[in-house]
Amino acid sequence: MNRKPFSWMCPAIGVGTSSILAGQRGVMAVAPIKAGEVIMVMGGPVVDIPTHNQIGSFGEEYGIDISEHFSFCPCNEEELERMPQFFINHSCEPNAGFLDQLQIVALRAIAAGEEITYDYAFVLFSNPGNEHRFQVECRCGTAHCRKQITCDDWQIPELHQKFGRWFQPFLRRRFYDLHPGWAEAAVLEVPCAVESSGPLAKGREVARRAYLAQHPQFAAE
Ligand SMILES: C[S@@+](CC[C@H](N)C(=O)[O-])C[C@H]1O[C@@H](n2cnc3c(N)ncnc32)[C@H](O)[C@@H]1O
Ligand SMILES: [Zn+2]
Fold it and tell me: Residues 155, 156, 159, 164: is their CA dihedral positive or negative?
């Protein structure tokens, strides 16, 4: 990446060679990351979905929907290089998810050398007007691999149960409608490597501990 990225990247990550997909790029942890920590804040050109659908092969391969109406979508190689979010590969057992539209957070402690992954179900949506339906044979190699990644996966109820909090908010709203009685989860402030000291950092550490108390399965050993 020669030019400054549009997105903020935690100092503990970098774009490198994927450990999941031979010969492809991926986003790798270069230092340990705590559960709940912000890994990336996505930035870059935002386009509306009709424009996205006209962009052609770039739009088909690269695009992260942030609502039913808008997506991050690079128009050319140079924009792609500056949007590291597009180098995050899919895993059916992800270690990252969406805190909100823009922030990608660690779902558990991540060791140096591990690849950062999220489940593409957290974001893929079958946009009206797009003839291209995303479907890829999954090569994540995890024990619970579902073998295919498609733009309909956001509707899988087991994923809502397991990872509902970590979907893009526009999809979360859609499946909260599918499960009457579910309430929107409380929003917690999470730690961020930018603020390593001071009162805000202290507040974030308190929030992180509260998060781990609610999700002990993600606590570091
Ligand atoms: C946003 S790109 C990810 C970056 C890509 N590895 C690269 O080097 O440009 C998405 C594409 O990566 C591939 N990909 C990501 N995760 C995958 C997985 N678990 N199994 C198979 N292909 C995957 C698919 O071709 C998908 O269309
Ligand atoms: Zn898989």
Answer: positive
pLDDT per position as a tens digit, 6-44? 999 999 999 999 999 999 999 999 999 999 999 999 999
DSSP type of residue 132: P
User: Exposed e or buried b for every residue in 105-137, given b needs 16+ CB within 10 A?
Assistant: bbbbbbeeeebbbbbbbbbbbebeebeeebeee
Residue-level pLDDT at 59: 65
Ligand 1 atom 15: the closest Cα is on which residue? Answer: 89
Q: How far is CA 65 from the centre of its chain?
A: 11
Q: Which ligand is nearest to the CA of 20?
A: 1
Query: What's the 143 CA to ligand 2 centre distance in angstroms?
Result: 8
Q: Which residues line ligand 1 (CB under 6 A)?
A: 18, 20-21, 24-26, 61-62, 86-87, 89-91, 136, 138-140
Position 177 scores a pLDDT of 66
Indicate the pairing of strand 46-48 with strand 70-72: antiparallel
The amino acid at residue 44 is: G
Question: b vs e for 69-104, b when ≥16 Cβ sit within 10 Å of the residue's Cβ?
Answer: ebbbbbbeeebbbbbbbbbbbbbbebbbbbbeebbb
Ordered by where they begin, the domains of the chain are 8-218 (2.170.270.10)
Helix (H/G/I), strand (E/B), else coil: 103? strand
Predicted TM-score (pTM) above 0.85: no
209 CA → ligand 2 middle, Å? 30
Distance 105 CA to ligand 2 centre (A): 20
How close are the terminal C-alpha atoms of the chain, in Å?
34
